[in-house]
Amino acid sequence: MPGLVPGIHVFIHVPEDVDGRVKPGGKDPQMDAAGLRAMQAPIKERYKADPTAGLITLKAKGAIDDANIACKVETGRALAVAGLHPATGGSGLELCSGDMLLEALVACAGVTLKAVATAIDVPLKSGAVSAEGDLDFRGTLGVAKDAPVGFREIRLSFDVDTDAPQDKLDQLLKLTERYCVVYQTLKSGPPVAVSLKRKS
């Protein structure tokens, strides 16, 4: 996107035709700020009393496909098969791991936005989250040494239907960025340890 430096950019957009009515098919919030605080209060107290209780290791597992260039990832609810992107010779039948990364960002950002909106009393009639990232596939194919391997830029945007004033929306976006785990991980770039061992 012109005018933007490489990195992760977040935007929030409110439709101009907001009329205060719940859109067809929309649902009223199932939890208010008080309910959210009540639910999280004992968890927060536990973490304050025992900081180590808040340290949790999330894990992802996958099995390398025997026949195809693919990796089967256990999502907890189903088996996701990831393969090469068509731009690198893939069939397009398997999931692209780059898409999965963006989907994880969208999922985490969407949940975080809704939680924050509930906590600070920003009523959302509806909302959508989208993420897009720019990749130069020359990098992963080893075609050009100056081409980076990985996303050059990621853009995350929220489209919300709400009557909340702009200052509340600014707060909503700021807190969503602060507490979104996947966004902060991508933005901060934590150390990643990689190992390879022979299967016994």
Please explain how this structure is put together.
By secondary structure, this protein is α/β, with parallel strands linked by helices. It has five helices and seven strands, in the order βαββββαβαβαα. It has helices at residues 33-49, 97-119, 137-140, 166-179, 181-188, and strands at residues 7-13, 61-64, 70-74, 79-83, 95-96, 126-135, 151-161. The strands form two sheets. It has a four-stranded mixed β-sheet with strand order 2-3-4-5. Helix 2 packs across helix 4 (166-179). It starts with 6 loop residues before the first strand and ends in a 12-residue tail after the last helix. Mean pLDDT is 82; it is low at 1-5 and 17-29.
